[in-house]
Structures are given as structure tokens and as C-alpha cells.
Hints:
Six copies of one chain form a homohexamer.
Chain A: E1 2-4, H1 19-30, H2 35-47, H3 55-81, H4 89-94, H5 98-104, H6 112-115, H7 118-122, H8 149-173, H9 177-203, H10 206-210, E2 229-232, E3 258-261
Parallel strand pairs in A: 2-3
Helix pairs in contact in A: 1-3, 1-8, 2-3, 2-8, 3-9, 8-9
Amino acid sequence: MYFHDKRLQYPVKVETPDPLFARQLQQAIGGVEGELRVCLQYFFQAWGNRSPNTKYRDMLLHTATEEIGHIEMLATAVALNLENAPLSLQESTAAANPVVNAVMGGERPRHMVEGMLHKHLLSTGLAAFPGNADGAPFDCSHVYASGNLAADMFANITAEATGRTLAVRLYNAAHDPGMKDMLSFLIARDTMHQQQWLAVIEELGGPAAQLPIPNSFDQSLENREFSYVFAGTDRNGEPPPEGRFTQGPSLDGKGQFSAKQAEPLGAAPVLGAARQGSGAQTEQMDATSSA
Amino acid sequence: MYFHDKRLQYPVKVETPDPLFARQLQQAIGGVEGELRVCLQYFFQAWGNRSPNTKYRDMLLHTATEEIGHIEMLATAVALNLENAPLSLQESTAAANPVVNAVMGGERPRHMVEGMLHKHLLSTGLAAFPGNADGAPFDCSHVYASGNLAADMFANITAEATGRTLAVRLYNAAHDPGMKDMLSFLIARDTMHQQQWLAVIEELGGPAAQLPIPNSFDQSLENREFSYVFAGTDRNGEPPPEGRFTQGPSLDGKGQFSAKQAEPLGAAPVLGAARQGSGAQTEQMDATSSA
Amino acid sequence: MYFHDKRLQYPVKVETPDPLFARQLQQAIGGVEGELRVCLQYFFQAWGNRSPNTKYRDMLLHTATEEIGHIEMLATAVALNLENAPLSLQESTAAANPVVNAVMGGERPRHMVEGMLHKHLLSTGLAAFPGNADGAPFDCSHVYASGNLAADMFANITAEATGRTLAVRLYNAAHDPGMKDMLSFLIARDTMHQQQWLAVIEELGGPAAQLPIPNSFDQSLENREFSYVFAGTDRNGEPPPEGRFTQGPSLDGKGQFSAKQAEPLGAAPVLGAARQGSGAQTEQMDATSSA
Amino acid sequence: MYFHDKRLQYPVKVETPDPLFARQLQQAIGGVEGELRVCLQYFFQAWGNRSPNTKYRDMLLHTATEEIGHIEMLATAVALNLENAPLSLQESTAAANPVVNAVMGGERPRHMVEGMLHKHLLSTGLAAFPGNADGAPFDCSHVYASGNLAADMFANITAEATGRTLAVRLYNAAHDPGMKDMLSFLIARDTMHQQQWLAVIEELGGPAAQLPIPNSFDQSLENREFSYVFAGTDRNGEPPPEGRFTQGPSLDGKGQFSAKQAEPLGAAPVLGAARQGSGAQTEQMDATSSA
Amino acid sequence: MYFHDKRLQYPVKVETPDPLFARQLQQAIGGVEGELRVCLQYFFQAWGNRSPNTKYRDMLLHTATEEIGHIEMLATAVALNLENAPLSLQESTAAANPVVNAVMGGERPRHMVEGMLHKHLLSTGLAAFPGNADGAPFDCSHVYASGNLAADMFANITAEATGRTLAVRLYNAAHDPGMKDMLSFLIARDTMHQQQWLAVIEELGGPAAQLPIPNSFDQSLENREFSYVFAGTDRNGEPPPEGRFTQGPSLDGKGQFSAKQAEPLGAAPVLGAARQGSGAQTEQMDATSSA
Amino acid sequence: MYFHDKRLQYPVKVETPDPLFARQLQQAIGGVEGELRVCLQYFFQAWGNRSPNTKYRDMLLHTATEEIGHIEMLATAVALNLENAPLSLQESTAAANPVVNAVMGGERPRHMVEGMLHKHLLSTGLAAFPGNADGAPFDCSHVYASGNLAADMFANITAEATGRTLAVRLYNAAHDPGMKDMLSFLIARDTMHQQQWLAVIEELGGPAAQLPIPNSFDQSLENREFSYVFAGTDRNGEPPPEGRFTQGPSLDGKGQFSAKQAEPLGAAPVLGAARQGSGAQTEQMDATSSA
């Protein structure tokens, strides 16, 4: 079960509220690359973890819980960036705030209503919501918890890689020192989280031991003629670029890479004609299918 | 641009059509772990690839194009498994197919309408559609193409890891030899595809060179005090499990792992009161905010 | 504005409630092919109709309003089919209704909970909802109202064609005489609605006058070399099948059909390298892009 | 920020695993009526709470945090109900578990694969996911946080009312004593949560003080002729049923209820014709709109 | 069944078309707080209403039917606000309409294309669609019809509370007198609709009789030790704020409120290890699970 | 199976990159009217085509394959329009590009960040994604493949009609000669594609032979009293507008059009009261339903 402390994990301060940046921050809350996703992903991986020991379940719970606090920090940052946002176009046009103008080059605040996310004004009362920078709600199909530990670790590295990429883009777009400071913390946490999921793979023997995923499937049942060959699909048979993936031992140590032009091994498919009663046109049915 | 050959990449044969297995196969077409996802993912990564050279763009195009053929194989398999599926409950109840019954233990076909996906009967005329085993349409937010090459490679490993896990589960659930043969091919291709995306990371120097992602961000700008420390969130301060992620050098060679209990460093947040005109209740407004 | 009469447009009677058929009927309410879609589609086409006269706006309002009554009929049919549905597995197992059993071959009601839609039991209290047979809510992106009258008429023919196809499939799957009677009415209305939208195209001069849609675009601005040629994409240059679409005058009377193998006319695309600050990997950037 | 204790808020035990009940429990995790929704709803209401004091923010944080633990309990219950679920149809058919059969009347386990949610088998490895009983992912547009305290309290009462209704339906459908015990706890918590949100409304003066919501809007600006009249829309002018809503003082004490047949007060709308360049058909344009 | 009158329920006039306001109005059509939602919600509650008498069914039908007319008014308002909207950036830049400029302060129309919703230009031909201000289609999972009358009434109060909050925000953002007049009518109708659903609760005895919802569940089956206690989850045991919800009789008169720190009553969960054939990694399986 | 050629089907050139136009082009990739939809639609129609001969399957494969190349062209166009897009507001404000300004009237580039799609900056690294101009991902429920050939052909005409309408709107909005040239090609292909699907209908005998769809249903089973009558729903009985749809022979030659005011033929529906155990309020249950 869970507990809270009403203080934030790290300070969140905004000197110059910017409703456009509030919008961009939403991506880090409810975007595919955002904190809501990793939070729920780690929780569901933990709660469904099947294993003879509970080490990784425990580890996941620590980090999942940390992530709630990151959502909280970002939601706070969104609300602070929406302080004094214009409630109407007129207000926006009238309020030529000279301080902000000086910072931004004297051009920006006049059109803030056009740039900001209407949902912030119309639906949330100048606060954050669990959706992305386009206003789209987060959809939990992005919570990856496959029941396979190695697949989940790679999913987590991916989530933190896209998460840190987003945080870096936001850092580069930010102009407020408080926002840059908050992002410097979140970027550091993403650095660690990329590391820790990769460390699990390493601890379990690295790709050589863990791949192909799932490693519990007897590879003699797969058609091994096709297991380590790069398939070229250039129409004229131009070979694929040479690389680590076309030659040398495979990274799991179980095969040798090669490259080969793909050619059809199957026939053109033949489906049965439409049947009476199936809602097709008569022309789709066999002359003899009247029964 | 693109070309087709009307033959299949690999043979698809079904001896005993099974509408329930048709349903399960849909997950491999339009599920999050499915072929439609990887196909579009590799295409959009290729089409948006920014780099001084086009090596990975070209490589991605080869494999993306291959994946169209996998969707085609699975769609064919779905249609073949739906041959002679019951069009009504009565037909289902009546058609006690003794051959299938013998295979399955004499119990199954009577209730096939209940088990099959209604969309196959009501909406597609006994054919496949681009959705999953629950009938949910594929949603292209699962096409990950971040503009960051390393993040995309990890996303691709993840996609192929969950894809092969799904294919293995389908293999285990299958009873038709044609279906097992088709899956033994698709599993082998997933083996290779896991390898090839990992090989790109290796070719670029491995995690040490590629992490933290994005590696183009100057790490002196992140708050490095928090970059390699595992944050414990146990309420009673019970430390996290020890592992590769709590000690030793970090996997990018840029830090030392440690573990530490997380404590709030920020204050409880204070938001401005609701403003006149913002649609809040009067009680949410400052007594002095009448302007 | 709108008014109601609490009586139904056509009688809805169910002799033998069938929770599985209740599930299938949901497709006709909230499926892509369903009545909720056409209702909203005709309303939004009417409300947004731009034209010097209001003839088609008026016509659309008549039919849109009729469709509300069709949703009502189907929602009533769903509720009637859920009368006495089992509220638990035990109830389902115990209630071996001999009357239904006789009709269905003595096998069905024992497993009704497994076959029925759980949402009917858990979320609606044995009533209809605006979603499809898989429980997915209707999503209004399927309401097609393009602002182009001819495009909308074709969209409407499509909607009624898939709608009648669905109704026919339900008719074939139904076993209750009341349900067959209700569907015989809805199928007839779909017959008419297909006709009436096609009649608008005819009234405006038929495809020759209305195509290409939009007909207000000056065709001299399109690249007419490609306007009436079927493009073959067979990898080996095998020509497409011959048909009305490869020879003879085009159906708009503005060109001659032909067929031709497609070949690339453009170059391989070259995108700029990733820029500093864009969140890419360093390897994606030009050596010279340090600024 | 947040902390965890690896023990559950309340015991979760399953004597007889039932994959069909696992499916039904998903509705309480990721359904519209489920715990994920209330958890996120209370968090976002807290994090965005604007008010001169923080009382309700604090209160919301306590309960939001509690709700994480409810999701955890249910996710655990799902996983326990999936222990030993069949991985294939053959396994399902073969494993005629006599113990379960005795409980259920000897009929159930043979078809378990058909009844269970395929996602549990194919996508999660026999564990819970953040979606509902039909496999649909939770969509965060159901997280209601409007920025208006009273509207949010009514949204919360609604969420807990539908939540307890669902929990009661699950209790009635359950047959395992451990599951009934867990649900008797969750139902009790829903009882309290309904109360506590209603108590906020009461504490603020009840509906008389809080309605109409938002109470900060000057009612002299609304068209008060229509503020307390029930509008009848029967086609024949048959009056609406009499009730508390057609007579007597309004519940906010600011008007008198009445009922009246609605009649159109506006004209038929007239939109401008389609313009050149807007993609409409020529027939939709004014003869004179050639510019 | 249903009928229409081609006149509007209330006049809709726009003096100065504003494509940005057209965008904001979409939220009142197809947003979660919008008219499409309440319209369908009341219809589905009516059509599925189970009760010994039909009073509330009838009442719901009256209001559901009224709501179609509100969508119609708003759709008309959107179309009128899009009259003469720019079809391209050049047109937008060139058309420095001095009249509008005078009203708005001389700054706005130049960038209208950037501010307006692209869907209005690209997809609807300058008309409304059933989606929100961000262009997201309305999703019918927001149509709440639970089969429980009291839960539905609270859902309706919520819908009208957020609906009126939205209408007030639009009123405050509007600058056109015709739009303010239309909204003054819609706000008044929302006032009434909030009242009428609350009146149903009152008529049935108020919260004391109706709570806990569902009131048909025997409370002796819930774990009453937890039914009226506010659970504190502060990590340091700091008690929750005192309020009506922590002391005094409960609002249903069936208990006494109290507050208590929550502590785990359950154990840490233990799930079975992954099984052979379940697609997990070998490391997740028991050494002994080879069967 | 499938093959690629790394060259584009038609040249794609951008002289003056415009991030706002990049946004608008997304609609042609991942909008409902876009190329991703037709590509997948034709593929799934082909792969599921049931018919005694494979002519239309083959034809569909040719065109489906062509459409991949159109997505590729548009994705390339989006990326080229995003070259040098501003990565922050400051960059946008500072970079008053005099060349672009001269073209656009000196007003545009200063606010480009506000107008561009944030996903292009934050999530894709200045590249295309499979979603629309509002950032919403493409949802494959828009892939229409009904199993009925004629319904599918009308769906295809609709898709190409809305597709060409969109392309024309983009052409009118474009200012770059390269973009106009690319669109002149895509518009021409849409012209042909509209034609070719219509030609299939013609080849099969036209509407007279193909309607009502499905033409395999025995019309004597539909309630033919309602098959060719336009139903008026004006509240006052004002007749519908006269047109081709109210008089003369029907277009399928199987009936005569007429018009008639709709009147209720059914009774007001009566549903059973709520049952014990169904989660309703006690007031919804029969006094006698205690069992």
C-alpha cells in the first residue's frame, strides 16, 4: 500500500509563467514518453511479476512509487505556468505585459490565447490534466507489462530513453530558470532509470543469455534457416548495407549473421468463395454455393 | 516506392479451421505486439531518419517492407481459420463436426459462436481486420519513431521481444500443423530482428557510447547528484534489494551506482487562488480577488 | 429543434431473450456500421450544409431524425434480450432453461455468462450502451461530414451499404421471430436510404457531372498525365487484370483509361542531418553542426 | 511525494482460481467505474486545486494515495485468479478439474479458454493490466478535474456510486470466499468515499449555497426566464410527468419550478454558400461567388 | 420516435465571425462537458430505464430530446463563426480586416490560420463536427448509464455542473453579443438541468434514503468496520484535516464518521512463478517447473 | 510479399520550409481522409477478398502497394517542411527570416512555434508521424473492409472523394511550388482512384444490379412496404422537399419512390423492473421481486 508526504521530491519554481510552456510540459505528464506511463508501467510490471524470488518486483515498486512524485512535480509546474494566463482573447490582447515582453523580445504575449491549450482554459481551470501537449488523454495501452522480464526491461529502457529525449527537448525550449532547474533533476533521474533497467539485463547475463526473448522457447522449434539472416527486399536485388547485422557471430552467440535477398516461398493465397448468408454480393459466391 | 508479388513470403496452410484461433491470431496483426506496429514503426523511422549518412534508413526500409508480407501471411491465416465458421448459433450448435471433436476431445465446436470474435462474423465477412484479439482497432500512437536513433533501436528490440513472446504463446496454443509451421517461421524472423536492432547499438559503441540517451545532451547541465543513485521509496526506509543497479560503475562508464532513501527536497506546493471569471466556485477565490 | 413521441417507430418484441444476441445487436447501435453513426452523420451534414438553397439540408434533417428512432428500437431490443440474463456463473449453470434448450438443441444456456458481454452485466445493469459488440464505445471520428456534398452522399451510401450488410447478417443469425420482424423493417429502411443518397448524385447529373470530387477544382491544375491511368505495381511488371478501369472512356467523360507499370520518377529522399538541440544522438549530427 | 509498503492494505486470497472472474475484476481496475480512474481523478484534483486554503487539497491527497493500494489489491486478485489458467484450448479441454467442477456443477472448466480474456493469456502472461473486462485500455479522459470544486465533488460521488455498484455486482457474481471478503472491504471503502465527497458539499452550505455550479457566475447574466422551467418536448404537447422538478421552490432557493412545452424561438438557420477554394462541389457555390 | 422543426430552439446570431471562438465552441459540442454527451446520456438512461413505473424514463426523454436542439444551436454557431475564415495563410495575412481589428485592438486577424482548428479548414469545409476544441472526436464511453437510478442522477448533475462551468468560461471569453445571448440561454438551461436531477434524488428521500448507492445491497455484507472512517495516508501519520467527513453522523444516518491512519492489514503478495509455455524468461520459472 | 525501391514515386521538393504546412500535411498522412487509411483499406480488402475469381483481389493489391509510396512522399514532405523549424520560442522570435517574411508579407515566422504542431518538435525530432493535423494518431477502425465487394467499392470512392477534397484544400493553402507540384500529382491519382472503384460497380452492372447492398439477400424477407418510401419527420407534417428520391422508379429498378409522414407503429416500450442482485436502487425493483 502507499503513503504520501505533501512536500515535493524536488523544488518546482516558476518566475515567469508561460502558458505555452505549460502546454509543452503536458507531454511529459501524459504523452507516450511521459511520467504517467512509466509510473503505471512499473506498477503493473511489479504487481504481475511472476518469479521464484521477488527481487525485481521489489525494485520496480521503489521506482514506480518515485514516479508518482514526478507527475506531481510536473502537474505543479503546469499550474504555476498557467498563473495569470489570459481568460479571453481581449485580455490577451490588452495585457501587453512589458516585463515578459522584454524577456521575449517584445512580441509574444499578445497572442497567448492562440498558442495555449484551450483545454487548460476551458476544461481544467488553469491546471494540468493526464494528457499530452495536443490535449489527447493518456491511453493505458502504452503501459507495457508483458509477463516477460527481459521484454519488460527493454520496454523500460525505451520508455526512459524517449522520456529523457523529451526532457532534453523541453530543457532546450525552456527559458525560465526554475523550469530548467526542475528539468535538470528529471533528466538526471532518467539517466539513472535507463541504467537500472539495463543493469537487470546485465545481471542476468546480458543479451547473450537473455536473447532471443523469450529465452524459454526451445529454438529447435523455430525455423532456424531464417533466424540469423538479414532479408533484403530491394526490388532490384540491390543488397542491404553491410553492417554488424549482416556478418559475424550473432549477439546471442547462437548463430552467424548473413544477408540474403528475400523471395516468395509461398503461393498466392486462395480463400474460399463467399457463402450464402454471409452478407456478400451474389457475384462473390460460387454458382454452386446455393445451399 | 513499393512493389508486390502476389505470392506469400512463406507458405500458409490450415488443415482444421478454428475460428477461436483466428481470433487469437488477430493479436499478431493488430495488437500492440503485432506486425502492423513494427511495419509502420520501421517505415516512419526510415522516412524521418536524419543523419549524415543513410545506412540505417536503408536498413530500416528493407525490414519494414518485409513486415508487410508478415501482415499478409497472418491475414491469410485468419481468413483460412474462418472458413466454414458458423454464421449463427443454430448452425454452431447443429454442426457437431466429428473430426474436430475427435481432435479436441469431443467438446468444442458446439459453442464456437460464443468463443469467436463477433466482428469476424458481423463486420468483416469472415476475414481479418487491423485490430487485436479483443476487436480493438490498432492505434498508431504505438508507432514509436522519436527522431533519436538509439531510442528507436531500443523501441525496436522491445517490439520484437514482445512480438516473439506473443508468437511463442500462439505457437503453444496452436494445434494445427500448418499454423505451427507458419509460426516457426515468424518466430525465427523475430529472433533475427531482435538481433539486428541490437547490432546497431553495438556497432555504434554499445551502451557505453550510446547512453544516456540522448547522448548529445551536455551532462554537466543535468543535476548529476541524482544521475546514478537508486532512489528507495519504502515508507519505513527499508533499503531496496541490492543488485548491479545499486553498486559498481554505471554501465555508461560515467558514474558509480549507489542507493539512497528518497526524501522530499521541495516544499508543499502553493498555487494561486482561483480567479474571477475562471469558472470556479466563489469559495475558491480570495476575498480580495473581486477585480 | 426536436420532439419525441414515446411510442416506437416500429414494434419491437422478443419472445425468447438471448443475451448473446443482445451482444450482437450492439454492433447495430454503436458499431461503425450502426445507427448512431448514420444519425450523427446526417445531423452534422445537415447542420453544416453550405449551399445557395436548403433542399438537401432539409432532406438530411428528415432522415437524421428518423435514425434516432432506430437507435431507440435497437436499444429496446437489447434490453429485452437481456431480461433474465444470468447475474453470475452459478445462476447461469443452474438455470438450465428447458424451453430455450429445446429450441437451441439443449446445449446453450449453461454457458451464457461466458458468451454475453460483461459490460451488459457489470456496467449497464442489463441495458444497451452506445458501443459495439466488443464493448468498444462509438467514436465520433466515424461521423463523415466533409463539407463536400457529393463526397458526403457517397459516404452515406457506404454507411447504409455496410449497415444493411450488418442487418442482414443479424437477420441470418437471429432465431427469435420478433427480432426477425424488427430487422425486416430496418433492412427495408436501409434499402431506401441507399437509394435516396444515390438519387441525389443522379439528380445532380450523376458521376459524369459530379466526378472527380470536388468538381470545383480546375483540372488543368492537376497533373493530368496521371489522372486516368491504372498504375501497376507488380514487382515483375506483370500487368494488372484488364477491366473497365484499364480501357475505354473514363466514367466522368473527361479522359481515357489506360494501364501502365509504375516506375519511380523521384530520387531517393535526402533529409538534413539532425541539429544540435534537437534531442538526437551525436552520431546523427554533422561533424560541422556544432553551432 | 510518495512512499510504499510492500504489504497490501487488506488481505487478498483466492481459493479457487477462476480466469473468468479475473476478467470481470478487470472492470474494477481499468473500467470507467474502476479504481484507476478515481485514483488519478483525486490526484489531479489535488495537484490542480486552487483555493485560498489547502484543506481539500490535503484531503484529496490522502484518499488518492489510498486508491493506489486498491488497484494493487485488485491486480493481485487478477493474477491469483489466473494461476493455472489454461494456456491452450487442449489444456483447457483436458483439465477437467473435478474440484472446480463440483463447485460449479460439473460444467464449467472445459471451455475456460473461450470465456477468459485472451489478453491475459497472449499479452500479460497471466497478470492484470490497466484496462477493462473487454480488454479496452483505460483512457484518461475519464479523469474529471474541472477546476471547480463543487463540480468535482459531484463527479467524485458519481465515480464512487458507479464504483460501488460495480463492486456489488462483482460480489454477487463471485463464488470464492476470499474474493467476497476482499470485495466486502472495497464496498465499505466506497460507502465512505461517497459520504466524504458529499460531506464537502454539505460543509460548504449544501446545494442551496453551491448551486447553480459555478456559483461565482452572476445569475443576472443568464436568461432567467429559462432557469427553472422544465421543458417538455412531447410532439403532441403531452405534459411531462409531475414531480419535485416541475413545482415548488427550486433546490437552490433562487427560483420556482414550473413546466412548459418547448417551442422554437429561433429561425431556421441560414449559412453562407460554399466559397471558391473551399473544396465543395460547384453546385454548393453561389453563381456569383467566382472571385 | 422523433420529430423535428427546422427552426432553432433559441436564436443564434453572430455579428463578427471569429474562427478561434468557433474552435472554443467545439468543446461545448463534443467535449466531455458538452451537449452531445448529455444528449446521448439521457437517451441511453431513458431507453434502458428499469423500474416498476416509467416516470423517470419519460422525464429523461423530454430532456434528452431538448439537448439535440442544443447541439444544433452550437453547430450553427460554429458554422457562422467560420464564415469568411481564411483558407490559407496568405489570405489570413493579407486580409487585415480593419473592422475586426478595431474591435480587437488591431492585432488579431493576421494570424488566424495559426489559431483556428485545422480540421475546420481541412476536413469539414468550415463547419462543426462532433469533437472537442482540440479536434478529438467525442468518445461514447463518456455516456454514463449505469442501470442504477441514483448513480445516474449524480452523473447527470456532474455533467450539467461541468457543462455550465464550460458555458460560463465561454461566456467570459466571448466578445460577440449574439454569442453572449446564446450562451445566456444555454447557461440558464444548465441551471435548470442541475436542479432537475437533484430534485429526483430529493423526491426519493435525499441522500439519507439513496446512499450508499446502490441502496439495494445488504450493508451487513460489507465490512462495516471501514464504512465510515476517513483513511489517512500521510507517511508520518500526520492526521487528515478535520471536517464534516471526519466527525459527526454520516450523511446517510447509518454510521458515525471518524478518521484513522491507514496501516497494511494484508501481507506482501506472492504470485506463482511463471510456467513453462507461458512465454516468460527461464529465470522466472521454478527450477522444478519443467513439466 | 513486398519489395521497395528507395526512390520516390514522384519528386518531392520544398523551397521554403514551413512548419505550419508540415502540420497541415499530416492530415493527408494520418487523417481519416489520408493515405494511411486507403493503403490499409485496400490491403485488407485484398487479403480478405472472397470470390470465385481473384480479379479484384489482384487489382486491389496493385493500388494498395502504390499507396505506400504516397505515404512515403508525404512523410518526406513533412520532414522537408520542418527543416530549420525553431526548437524554442526564443529561436522563433529571434529568427526574423527576411526571405520568408518577404514572401509571406513580413508577418509570419515570429510566431511559428505557436502555430506548429508540438509533437513535431517534442516527439518526432522534426519528422512525420502516422497521425493527423491535430496530433491524433490514426485509428484503424477507419479501415473499411466489410466482406461485401460493392459496399467496399463505395467505401473506396468515399475515401478517395474525401482524400481528393483534402488534397485540393492543401493545394489551395500551399504557397511553395514544390508542394503544389507534389499535390498536383496526388490529386491526379485520386481522380483515377475515384474512377477505378466506380468502374468496378459499373462492370458488375451498375447500381441497378448491385443495389440494394448486399444483393444476395432475398428482398421478399424485408418489409417491402418501407423499402422505397421517404419518411418525413417534420413535427408539423410539412412534407420533405421533392426530388428524385420522392418520385419515379427507384434506382435499382425494383420499386417506386414515394414520400410519407412517419408515424409510430409500435407501442411505448416496457422493460422489466430491475432485479435483486443487479445493482439497481431498491426503488427500481418490484415490491414482489424479493426473491
